[in-house]
């Protein structure tokens, strides 16, 4: 089992990740990059180029947050033949096409470039989706080498003339294909609707398409990829857990993960336009409350490394989880001191504002605005969405939940003015 991996930023070698005796990890920049220059490719906003190696929990968290979670992780470990806790071994086996621009390969491994793409017929696509529960991340497909965080099955793909293709080796994907989530009725329609609703309300989101056929999929354009000079290139990005050194098993605030104050601090620390990005974050938080998104944790928020500086990325992973009785009905981040939606009153939003050092009147104005607009926008989007994709009863349930939550908070705000 490898104890050293080459780390590449896109196709450029930037350094080595080493598993040291005793289990600790160290990263050392390549000699060519050890002196920091503006515009230089960097491992992380937290780890600029230098001669000395980087070590510690924050470094480990950066890389561990690239790996999938839950059952997918356990299955991968069994198939690779390593223990579930062997993060270094997992990275060495699957971290070819990663979120952002990082690629981890064995020392001296050849760079395949853009040639390894395998188009899929519709029957083949259906078979690939059907195989995911027993073959996570298509590990046993020759040349398939990629990793995506999360607990649900999905695959990075390339869309070529409207046809979905697998990307192999370190070939970059352009989209994420998300099939239906087992046990969650009409999950593709749920997430597709919520993303379209967010866009209607002016929130920046990834572009998404519900793709019908033998396998119904939600096809998401990757926000960490762009097409330039006839080829796909990676845009580096880091999620908030990576930036703040939080391990992946602490996604939710109640597990020790990041809360709203931490996320706002993250934006203030790294964004070149913090006021604009904090506004987007707060509106995302209100939107998650209204639609009942219990999966709105810090790993769903990312910062892209753009030419003008780091900025909050377009939003993704928006779906109503609270319409499923089998799932937890709490929020991933507390509003003030409360994560139970039915217990969130205006005073909790004021607590949030006070903790973050933001004027409570500003926060409450965003709450009032979205609570007033979202039910009407949901009706408009539902009509268009179901005309395009067919009837889905889950959308009716999401609209009822939105109307209930919006009415609760608006009535509470009005009562305070009496």
Describe the protein's architecture and organization:
The protein has 418 residues and is α+β, with helices and mostly antiparallel strands. It folds into three domains: 4-105, no CATH class; 117-228; 235-417, Phosphatidylinositol 3-kinase Catalytic Subunit, Chain A, Domain 5 (Orthogonal Bundle), CATH 1.10.1070.20. The chain contains eleven helices and 16 strands. It has helices at 57-64, 70-80, 87-94, 122-131, 187-200, 240-243, 260-270, 274-291, 346-356, 360-389, 393-417, and strands spanning 4-9, 12-19, 25-29, 54-55, 102-105, 117-119, 155-160, 163-167, 175-179, 208-211, 217-221, 225-228, 231-234, 237-239, 302-306, 309-312. The chain has a six-stranded antiparallel β-sheet with strand order 6-8-7-9-11-10, with helices on one face. Strands 4-3-2-1-5 form a five-stranded antiparallel β-sheet, with helices on one face. Strand 10 and strand 11 form a beta hairpin. Helix 5 (187-200) packs across helix 10. The termini are far apart.
């Amino acid at each position: 089992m490898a104890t050293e991996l080459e780390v590449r930023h896109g196709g450029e070698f930037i350094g080595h990740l080493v598993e040291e005796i005793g289990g600790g990890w160290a990263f050392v920049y390549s000699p060519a990059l050890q002196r920091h220059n503006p515009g230089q490719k960097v491992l992380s906003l937290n780890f600029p180029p230098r001669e000395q190696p980087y070590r510690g929990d924050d470094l480990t968290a950066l890389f561990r947050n690239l790996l999938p979670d839950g059952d997918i992780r356990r299955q991968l470990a069994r198939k690779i033949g390593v223990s579930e806790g062997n993060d270094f071994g997992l990275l060495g086996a699957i971290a070819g096409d990663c979120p952002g621009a990082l690629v981890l390969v064995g020392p001296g491994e050849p760079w395949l470039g853009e040639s390894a793409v395998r188009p899929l017929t519709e029957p083949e696509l259906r078979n690939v989706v059907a195989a995911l529960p027993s073959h996570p991340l298509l590990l046993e497909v020759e040349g398939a080498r990629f990793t995506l965080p999360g607990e649900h099955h999905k695959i990075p793909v390339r869309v070529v003339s409207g046809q979905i293709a697998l990307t192999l080796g370190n070939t970059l994907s352009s989209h994420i294909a998300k099939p239906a989530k087992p046990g969650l009725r009409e999950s593709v329609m749920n997430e597709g609707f919520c993303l379209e609703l967010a866009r209607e309300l002016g929130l920046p989101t990834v572009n998404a398409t519900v793709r019908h056929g033998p396998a119904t999929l939600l096809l998401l354009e990757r926000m960490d990829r762009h097409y330039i000079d006839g080829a796909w290139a990676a845009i580096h990005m880091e999620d908030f857990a990576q930036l703040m050194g939080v391990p992946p098993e602490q996604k939710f605030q109640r597990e020790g993960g990041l809360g709203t104050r931490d996320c706002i601090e993250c934006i203030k620390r790294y964004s070149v336009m913090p006021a604009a990005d904090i506004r987007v974050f707060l509106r995302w938080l209100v939107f998650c409350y209204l639609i009942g998104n219990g999966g709105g944790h810090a790993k769903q928020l990312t910062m892209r490394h753009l030419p003008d500086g780091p900025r909050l990325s377009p939003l993704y992973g928006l779906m109503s989880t609270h319409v499923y009785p089998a799932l937890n009905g709490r929020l991933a981040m507390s509003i003030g001191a409360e994560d139970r939606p039915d217990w969130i009153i205006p005073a909790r939003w004021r607590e949030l504002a006070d903790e973050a050092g933001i004027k409570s009147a500003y926060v409450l104005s965003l709450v009032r605005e979205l609570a007033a607009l979202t039910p009407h926008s949901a009706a408009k989007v539902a009509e268009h969405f179901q005309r395009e994709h067919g009837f889905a009863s889950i959308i009716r349930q999401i609209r009822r939940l939105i109307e209930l939550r919006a009415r609760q908070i608006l009535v509470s705000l009005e009562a305070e003015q009496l």
